[in-house]
Write a structure and sequence with these properties.
Chain A is an alpha+beta fold. The first copy, chain A, contains 6 helices and 6 strands, in the order H-H-H-E-E-E-H-E-E-H-E-H. Chain A folds into 2 domains: 5-54, Arc Repressor Mutant, subunit A (Orthogonal Bundle); 58-136, Alpha-Beta Plaits, CATH 3.30.70.920. A 4-stranded antiparallel beta sheet of chain A has the order 4-5-3-6. In chain A, helix 1 (5-16) crosses helix 3 and helix 2 (22-29) crosses helix 3 (33-46). The first copy, chain A, is elongated, with a radius of gyration of 20 Å. In chain A, 37% of the residues are buried. Chain A binds a DNA duplex through residues 21-24, 31-35, 37-38.
Chain lengths: 156, 156
DNA sequence: ACGCCCCTGTGCATCCTGTGCAGTCTCGGT
DNA sequence: ACCGAGACTGCACAGGATGCACAGGGGCGT
């Protein structure tokens, strides 16, 4: 779907002030309330706004350690099956199939560096995982920053 | 902060049904509305709920290609300065300092594989970046899945 | 010129929110 | 066993916000 600047400004408003109401947004943007509502509905139903939910931050409730993990899996297992197995481990936050040397890339959280070992063991315990090589995140400069991209897309 | 099962169930409700009101949540959970409100306020102010905003999905508005990019930077530049420079490129969604062979790990989006080259060039054009090695995401099994972890944390 | 789609402005009934308060309950510490 | 702090409850009220509907005005592509 293509988005225009009004869409981007709406999303920007609701991102900056989570206490924003549709009515107030329409006042700020100087458009009709129905317009804001229609834009939001359109973006939600088309998937441009994938979710609009409270986002728990693992760092804030006891999981300060994050790591990326490149996994090599046994050829007999399908990627989907392995991903489903990994989904059963709550510490696994994200799983992608990737190109390159390894097969899967996972992002995991842990309570400490020592606890990370437990998590990685749990990942490896998935029979299909042959090898895993991980890098620990030392500092997150920013993440989940899709708004600038949306604004860039709106400009053309 | 420590969370209990009620917290987790509240977050679960608001995650599953984005059209959930505090009042209806209190009815479903059979607790007072003020309780739900107090829990939400506490989680938001303590950072357990980091954000509660519409999440634009790059795949849905013209950026179907995602890649992870391991960056080696010139020793004369600080990580923060490089991260700030990368933040100016909207296609860069995420930047972490990591342990291991490389210095930074970035996640980038692009309109196509060909366009990915343009993005990577932009990243490399940041003078501080010496080398970059990227893997393309072929399939995302799941991502941004912090709720199961919150529920696991609530159980103990 | 025409039809179509989007935006606008308006109105209304309904529901939700923010807020405050007093009473009760629970749990941990002494 | 007792006490106190903090949490939960139930209630009430005013002010908004929402969902919905509808008619009119523009802009755009055919």
């Amino acid at each position: 779907m293509k988005v225009d600047e009004l869409d981007a400004r709406i999303v920007r408003l609701f991102t900056d002030e989570q206490r924003m109401s549709v009515l107030e947004a329409s006042r700020i943007l100087k458009v009709a309330r129905a317009t804001v509502q229609a834009r939001l509905d359109r973006m939600v139903s088309s998937g441009v706004i994938a979710r609009w939910a409270p986002q728990p931050e693992p760092r804030a409730f006891g999981f300060p350690v994050v790591a990326y993990c490149a996994l090599t899996i046994h050829q007999d297992f399908g990627h989907d099956a392995v991903a489903a197995a990994l989904a059963r481990i709550p510490e696994v936050l994200e799983v992608h199939t990737v190109s390159g040397d390894s097969d899967l890339m996972a992002r995991v959280a842990a309570r400490s560096n020592a606890d990370l070992q437990r998590v990685l063991d749990a990942v490896t315990a998935t029979k299909a995982v042959v090898r895993s090589s991980s890098v620990i995140v030392l500092n997150t400069h920013f993440e989940g920053r899709t708004l600038p991209l949306l604004e860039a897309a709106a400009r053309r």
